[in-house]
Amino acid sequence: MEITFAGSIIIPLVVLISILEIKYILPLAIILHIFQGVSVLNIHGSNYYSLSVYHFILIFITFHFFIRRKFFLKNFIYNKFLKILYIFLIWSIIITIVGPLVFDGVGVYNPRIGMDDQYNNLSNLSFSAGNLSQLFYILMNISFLAFGIIHASLFSKKLIIKSYIYSGIIVVLFSFWQKISFIYNIYYPAEILYSNISLEQVREFNIRLSSTFSEPSLLNGFMVPFLFFIYKYEDINRYKKYIIIISILTILIWSESSTGVLSIILMSALIYFIKQKNYVINIKFLFKFAVFILSLFIISYEYNDFFVKTILDKGDTLSAVYRFAADEHSIILLINTFGIGVGLGSNRPSSFITLLLSTLGILGIILISCLIYMQLKLSLNLLIKKYKLIPFIYLFISTLFPMFIGIPDVDFQVLWVNWMILAFITCVSYHNIKNLNGRVINEDRI
Fold first, then answer.
1. Residue 381 contacts residue 322 (beta carbons within 8 Å)
2. What tens digit of pLDDT does each residue of 18-74 get?
3. Which end of the chain is more exposed for a tag (fewer CB within 10 A), N or C?
């Protein structure tokens, strides 16, 4: 067991904040989530394991969530959402334990083995340490989201927003640093940023821009929502905004990942359609747009030579074949498991949608769709009351596009952080509305 250089700094910092200044724990989590490859603790051996800085701080947030023993609040706008969230957690735990046991030996794409290595050579499903780690990750991510909702009164809205903006600026700076290091062969702290044991090849052979993330598609998964947030966020100097937007677009080009390009096209199309409706955003419209996007993906499977191979994989036919085969097998898994799934950590295709279908089954994708619907409904209701929530709604929606296209990870920290930010801002805004109406409320009941 080895405590890394980052761990020697982060571990005492998180412990002190957790004990002395809990109001800084969410802002710190927002800052740390961008360091996806940074580990605080490495356990070497055949069953190696690395604890990331993000998961480390989530351990303390989860501890605070359970020790405070508040899972619902009286007359709270998020109670229905929280019920579905906890049901989703329970289902995820059940199927992740039961799935590998019931469907033991079924062919899967093992998340610990490369997708290309398993093409026509599938791994046999069995319950493993990967399933256990995914159980803890989903528990901590949901606790993190629920904690930010229920205990929103503990935190400063300005500090939460500033922490997110600072995290984006840090990613931009590291991106430029890495690009310059490629050109002029100067030092870049890869041994710190990719200290996770599983990223040894990234440390040694990385030639594509990934900044603080382990691969370009994940970098794009962060930069796309950051782009649309900055684009709509008004409380920032216009010239600073232009500089940030140009920097983000430059990074997206440098990363050479079509995930980001296609996500921007789809999100821009959504914004355009909304503008045609004179900025009237409603759930029915978003549902119709979601059906359109889903239809596009279904068509893409029928005509993957054009859509998948050319657009998603930039003409890399072999890579497209591997991705398509993994996604196709996920649908087969869904059918062979009678719509139940094989559990988190058991199968890894190339898309978030096919990941959910193959691991959590039909019920899992219904539950998370309900959560997204309920979150957007709560936030969009505030738009009617003229609250400035559009940047945060854009932040959340634009997080989903890169995941649907090429980030097959329920534990993707950008998803949970951006979701928490939108939910937190929504809670605070409802709190302000109640205060404007002259109602006296408890600070614990935002």
1. no
2. 999 999 999 999 999 999 999 999 988 767 788 999 999 999 999 999 999 999 888
3. N
CA distance 435 to 423: 19
CA distance 183 to 254: 12
- Give the C-alpha separation, 92 to 329, whole Å: 21
AA identity, residue 428: V
Mean pLDDT of 182-197: 92
Task: Spell out the residues 6+ positions from residue 45 whose beta carbon is closer than 8 angstroms to its own.
Answer: none
Mean pLDDT of the chain: 86
Range 219-246 average pLDDT: 93
The span from the CA of 352 to the CA of 131, in Å, is: 17
List strands edge to edge, sheet with 2-3: 2-3, 39-43, 49-52
Judged by DSSP in three states, 3 sits in strand
Q: At a CB cut-off of 8 Å and minimum separation 6, what does 242 contact?
A: none
Question: Measured at the alpha carbon of residue 380, what is the angle toward residues 76 and 410, in degrees to the nearest 5?
Answer: 80
Q: What is the structure's pLDDT at 203?
A: 72
Least confident of 29-33, 201-205, 225-229, 371-375: 201-205
Among candidates 201, 207, 211, which has minimal Cα distance to 185?
A: 207
By three-state DSSP, how is residue 77 classified?
coil
Rg of the chain on CA atoms, in Å:
21
For residue 204, the tally of other CB atoms under 10 A from its CB is 9
The three-state secondary structure class of 353 is helix
Q: How far is CA 310 from CA 307, 323, 353, 393, in A?
A: 6, 13, 20, 31
CA dist 433 and 385 (Å) reads 9
